[in-house]
Design brief:
It is a single chain. Strands 3-4-2-5-1-6-7-8 form an eight-stranded mixed beta sheet, with helices on both faces. It is an alpha/beta fold. It contains eleven helices and eight strands.
Length: about 260
């Protein structure tokens, strides 16, 4: 059920995206949502990977009513808003829906209208986008107030993260992008990754733009066997291993987001 509008007039919409798959974007999004909920925020996670959704797998929620049913008029929006583990609300998407693999005027309009509808009723809306820079991903990101990029220190992940930053800076005018580095092997590695990416952005992206592109480092999440175990259990890390190093790190990132 949609709750009363936030006193501030609406949620801050954050697109959580990545240059490539396999960096832990959806798992990070879900646990950030749980952390924000624990801080007293009203949070909605929208699975915006419309054709290859897997938020339902991470949360172990049956996808009986999804965005597809809402978009096609087979269900009301209120029926698709599900209480998720961790105290937040989830809006799931269907998987294997080929009609959402390309951006059509209908998809654009439905997504925009959906966000306009839910925005007044939450404090945070997290858009768990697909990976990469397809038209659907870029349009979804364009609807957000801010962008959070999740990457790992692995070279191909960094290359794709840079490509994403470049596209968002040049096509959407993004001048500040937030960064979380996942699966770090040692403390401080995330800041090194941020510095490395910032250096490349300063050299190859900022010249010619109307202002510098800044990467706002929100934090690093260490490689932790608890994450693997939580994924296998299909549970939130904050629910089953709240004291793990990765869980503590995610809470720290969420606290910075809230501030």
């Amino acid at each position: 059920m949609i709750r009363p509008a936030a006193p501030t007039g609406g949620a801050r919409i954050t697109a959580v995206t990545s240059g490539k798959g396999g960096v832990g974007k959806t798992f990070t999004t879900a646990n950030l949502a749980a952390s924000l909920s624990r801080l007293g925020r009203r949070v909605l996670v929208l699975d915006a990977d419309l054709g290859l959704a897997n938020l339902d797998v991470v949360l172990n929620l049956p996808a009986k009513v999804t965005l597809h049913e809402v978009f096609t008029g087979k269900a009301r929006l209120e029926e698709a808003l599900l209480p998720a583990p961790g105290g937040f609300t989830a809006l799931l998407a269907g998987s294997g829906m080929v009609e959402y693999s390309r951006l059509t005027p209908e998809v654009r309009e439905r997504l925009q209208r959906l966000l306009e509808t839910v925005r007044p009723h939450f404090d945070h809306v997290l858009l768990d986008t697909g990976a990469g820079i397809s038209d659907v991903v870029l349009y979804t990101v364009s609807l957000a107030d801010e962008v959070l990029i999740v990457t790992t220190p692995e070279p191909t992940a960094l290359t794709d993260a840079y490509a994403t930053i470049k596209v968002l800076a040049t096509t959407q005018g993004r001048r500040e992008l937030r960064l979380v580095v996942n699966q770090v092997q040692k403390a401080g590695e995330g800041r090194q990754v941020r510095a490395q990416l910032q250096q490349v952005v300063d050299r190859y992206v900022t010249p010619g733009l109307d202002g510098p592109v800044r990467l706002d480092f929100l934090g690093e999440v260490p490689a932790d066997v608890s994450v693997r175990d939580a994924v296998r259990r299909r549970q939130l890390l904050l629910e089953c291993f709240p004291g793990s190093s990765a869980a503590v790190a995610v809470v720290a990132v969420a606290t910075r987001m809230a501030d």
